[in-house]
Amino acid sequence: MNNFFHTKIEFLKGVGPQRAELLQKELNIYTYGDLIQHYPFRYLDRTQFYKIAELDESMPYVQVRGRVRGKEVLGEGRKQRLAATLVDEDGSEMELVWFKGVKWMQKTLKNHTDYIVFGKPTQFNGKWSMAHPELEEQGEEKQTASFLQPVYNTTEKLKAFRVESKVIARMMELLLKVAEPNIHETLSPELIDHYRLMSKRDALINIHFPQSVEKYNAAKFRLKFEELFYIQLRLLRQKTVRRADLAGQVFRQVPTVTEFYKNHMTFDLTNAQKRVIKEIHKDLTAGKQMNRLLQGDVGSGKTIVAFITMLIAADNGAQSVLMAPTEILADQHYTGLKAFADRLGINIGKLTGSTKTKDRKVLHEQLRSGEMKMIVGTHALLEDVVQFQNLGLCIVDEQHRFGVEQRSRLWRKNPRIIPHVLVMTATPIPRTLAMTLYGDLDVSVIDEMPAGRKEIVTVHRFDSHRLKVFQFVRDQIKLGRQVYIVYPLIEESEGMDYKDLMDGYESVRRAFPEYQVSMVHGKLKAQDKDYEMQRFVKNETQIMVATTVIEVGVNVPNASVMIIESAERFGLSQLHQLRGRVGRGAEQSYCILMTGYKLSKDSKTRLETMVRTNNGFEIADIDLKLRGPGDLMGTQQSGVLDLLIADLAKDAPILQEARAAAQRVLNEDPQLEQPQNQNIMRHIKSLSVNTVNWSRIS
Ligand code: ADP
Ligand code: MG
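A: This is the predicted complex of the input protein with adenosine-5'-diphosphate.
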């Protein structure tokens, strides 16, 4: 778009300086461009009316036609409110209430007059009521060409200055009239053609004032596509730039890998593991630096993939590092990898904060000489004294715990050629989100569990059944198993939560006097935490009472029961992560979600989902739908998710098409300099000129 859309909003007829300032402050609307992208968040379907008798509290918003019969101001001072009665044609009644702007409503609401009211119906003492409904006098409806009337987001402050949704709609009408001749196409003719997209001009008109259902749908698709296309285009361009810059070692030799496959594998790789290894292998032979994210649910078998990748490096004379965020995790990785390495006689080491000075010296030397091919560790690996003969591969586990800066200290340990990078995470990020967040990384997914794995049995039990649950625990321990009992710890209510945890610990000890009980939580010193964990790992204690500190990575195959207290207070992804602590051994495992009787609708959905499925990606998708992407781990700071119209939870198919389109465009014309892409180039330039708000989508 050209400069027309950079025109300040105050120049629009009917806006003026005062409203302009409010629009800026309240809605971030500075320019014509900002306003035109203030898309309706829903529409009023003028054809759909409800009778009061048909209302149901699950309805979000409804439109009701009726006559106002009586209105009165009730209460005093701050409790003052205006109540009116609306009677529909059947004679059913509903109360309309205003707590704010009482005087104004008292003046403008006409008694004995027919209105269309719009709002959320709620029931109060068996009577229907609607607070602060939108009102329209019947017969007042304009004969607009639009069958759906736009409803715009606004704020209390704006409403106080009479900038309601309707007023914004009027501004929009005016704006569209003057803007129409200035709306340029922002996608290439080839894309418009290929994806049968509506023109930008028609899309903007129809998103605000749909002329038909078909046109509305086409407009919505076009604008979502465009939004996602430009995000992907940016991410992919960053990737190509980086790719072109960074060379990587070529790892073509695989003799030991072949031997390992032939003689030392104790199980068959799953198809997903094979596919992922192929993807990695392709990267490692391409001559460019690998930057890959490996996602896989807990227990999906990432360790063997990591090991084979490290083995490929070793086969080509390069060293590799696996870095974990905690000592416990580093230990577990080390144990897992060493089991494989030992079969091949490969020298693998471990370096953490608690490695003794004497041992450190040896490790340092062996790394410098190249005698040691693989090393597992924690932050201790980042220290400057740790130098390599030829570091060729860095694997980082649980990536969200490490800062970018920390990671780059690893990369720099090979001054000649930057090591390949594989980031592993067990936090299932929905594919749509991964594509957006990590658009500049390649993503591999292990989406299949090893065969023969027993599904964890998940049940929901109310607190009142605790005795039975404890009996079950006792039976399991008698069979030789171990048990986790996890308590929530939410920052805002920390004090209370610790009390819950301590009370829980005491009652568990009382209930199981014959067994040993460990406890870990975030207030313990790292050393004490490790000590308690180790006791549990060694089966010296049978029950582990803990907060979510045990969430990440801990692997105790003998633990087969996970009890989650106040399960309604955990997010879905977190519940799933916790459940992943069990089900790691040969035994049937159980996850028991404990709650009280009072549960919100969302809590119920979370619990039901957990009981129904073990699939981490399905769970992540539902979590995304329940919470929205902004809440998911590590995505808060990412402006990427600040979308105007597209919705990552719902628009995965469009995202995929947009990404493919962006990829195609860049393959054919990496610099976007050919004539058919001039619309795209011009749009990118116009996005970067205005840094105020349009930058949101650049
Ligand atoms: P995670 O992805 O959580 O790190 P692990 O790599 O620890 O999972 O694997 C979990 C368990 O499954 C380990 O005991 C591992 O040896 C085993 N495993 C991995 N891949 C397979 C497979 N293809 N078939 C059978 N067992 C496997
Ligand atoms: Mg693991």
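The chain has five domains: 2-33+154-183, 48-145, 208-245+651-685, 255-446, 457-613. The chain is about 40% helix and 15% strand.
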